[in-house]
């Protein structure tokens, strides 16, 4: 029921484009889609057409859903379709949700919008329509993916990751070895991992390095659906093709990771990235599996996090190569830092960062680049 | 510590669980009219902020309107002034509300659509061309960039030879509810509130007649909060501004009288009346007892109300006229100081002239025909109303305790508390609707077949192109050196934590745009991508 023909969760990117901040509708949809077994990537408020379509390309989604309540559809939709063409991802259908007068519907269909839903559209109907659109997608042959990958076509990379995720037989195709430095970023739910990676990634990009991010979020064990929200924190700044972000759902994997992580990292590595940053699911004391995948592990903490991640020497504290005390703009940073330094007890560095104020990230970027 | 059970009861809607089909004295056992009510115009102002209320002066019928270019809106202002209005109400377009210039890529298709586009001092000058700013009172619905629009207004006044202390008006300037509900935030919560405090401090010193913040529950309610949550979150926000201003070293009695409130008038008639009465009572106690205010003017909660936009239905739109009338009556019986009635066709489009007039007529009929204005707080002393007022006050108090336990409004935002609570309430209402427990006439029941007749306002692309062209020219023609110096000063002041108002006024005069000033502050304050509960 919940899956496409091939038996895999449908992936949908939901986007709010422009300045309109009415997100009650899109959030209700995102949750309902997840409950129906769909993997939803929500990119948050205030997105441009370009950033949205670049995200769709990298995420290799089956469908892009655009939510527009500002009545700007006749301005925005032509633009998004133009960019879809420019990026060469015309196979991704685009559906529109919002306040759309009946008279505009034929115009929208004619310009290439796959479906239009109004606020009153029944949920079942929307979900069925999405599944149908996803199911009608053509299978891409491994040989084509391989050819594209060798030409460094990011569309092929995105598709290869999908194939890895789908457990397809890729015996014919082993990506070449790469030279990327692989960094794990872990820490309790909500400490700011995604926000921090966004800033760290920018710093590394500013030094001219190519950066890939694998961001893992939990999926529902019952429906297989997921709300992949990490990317939302990584959407700031001008769209950048050498900053490749891929959201994965944990799909029941252990240790705050996702299935096939090793292969996904290998695919990115062979593609020529200089850094690959892996964000775990919000992690607990015993989620140490990340260590085996990466060269360095950054453990994020926040003021007063003594209760969520205990400063004990065992478990997650033990595997950290460095510690980032994030949210230092909040009260209690000094006390937590003192506690933390006491608990670390060796010469692993402790960085003070405020991601939100963009303070202290340079030092971590330097450490990442040189250690 | 607050137990989970308390928290739940704070979230549930008023529903009497006893079988008794009426309310009587047993339901308000400790009721003492002297302390619970006082006389109208005296502490704790449950019955109203004036002794005579509507007998001497009706509420202000303030209809929020205005869209188009600065020049169009200026014409409309002049027309309204000629009709005898002295209060101007300004709605800004989405780019301005978000602190972006008209030529920002994200502004595409939005320039001048839902309000006037103001990107620079030049635009503000055109907006008030030929209007003496010491002769009018201007209300500006703007939040994240409110300090900048205020700076423009001050600079235009100065050009007219009007000093700031002569200026009268209101700035919505309530950034906290943007984090809870409306999403028109730019900077992270703390620096956002610091910026509001800058405006409060500046106005307290230089603009004593200016209403600094209109603390708003309207958007919180429209996003799905219950009545008790609307009341509690709004008053908690108000307290946060008071706290921050006191921390700044301001005397509470100097700034508190210039804070006002903005509530929703929803469907549950008696509950809404109780909410407005409770609001005044809670605020009076908070100001006197928690903050030690000595002036009566600080204890008084002045409010504006608007009927609930979310209750309007696209189906059988004439029904909306009736809904609005009852909601407006609740506002009046609750003793509001000012009221906006929605137009019946506002579900999807901006109102037509006809519908807007009917909305105003609704208020006039209540004011002049229904005779509900003959006595102040006519429902005071009703067992039911007093019981509801007590209950909603108790629920609000439980929510204040929760927020206090989290370390205040800012840390509660950081934990996603408000958004989660609002989402849960909205979800609950949806479930009640799906289960048929809540009825909507013409939608869930008493339906008729009807073609969907959604229509929307079309804007012309030309006005956007014109605005963008004007901006380009401004950026080319201005004194580049003065512009750079002014923005550098703004950045320095933001960094050192100085009040940025003087630097904003100087930057305005140097033709810095809204977007540039916001970007400059963003480089110091940071940008906010939303709380943990997306
Ligand atoms: N005050 C403050 N808040 C921050 C900072 N960094 C991130 N946040 C906020 O923390 C919340 C969570 O940020 P995310 O980046 O999504 O955290 P995360 O660790 O990736 O969360 P999960 O992936 O859900 O585990 C958001 O509301 C951010 O705005 C910071 O430096 N200071
Ligand atoms: Mg994350």
CATH topology annotation of the largest domain in chain A: Rossmann fold
Assign the CATH class of the largest domain in chain A.
Alpha Beta
The CATH class name of the largest domain in chain B reads Alpha Beta
What is the gyration radius of chain A calculated from CA atoms? 21 Å
Proportion of residues in extended strands of chain B: 5-15%
Gross morphology of chain B is: globular
Structural class of chain B: alpha/beta
Number of helical segments of chain A?
Answer: 12
Radius of gyration of chain B: 23 Å
The CATH superfamily label of the largest domain in chain A reads P-loop containing nucleotide triphosphate hydrolases
Kindly, what is the distance between the CA atoms of the first and last residues of chain B, rounded to a whole number of angstroms? 27 Å
CATH architecture classification name of the largest domain in chain A: 3-Layer(aba) Sandwich
**From the coordinates shown, what is the CATH architecture of the largest domain in chain B?**
Alpha-Beta Barrel
Q: How would a textbook summarize the main sheet of chain B? A: 5 strands, parallel
Q: Examine the coordinates and then state which fold CATH places here, giving the name of the CATH topology of the largest domain in chain B.
A: TIM Barrel
The unreliable regions of chain A are: 1-6
Q: Please give the largest β-sheet of chain A.
A: 7 strands, parallel
List all distinct small molecules, including ions and cofactors, that are bound in this structure. guanosine-5'-triphosphate, magnesium ion
Order of helices and strands of chain A: EHEHEHEHEHHHEHEEEHEEHEHEH
Estimated helix fraction of chain A: 25-40%
- The structural domain count of chain B equals 2
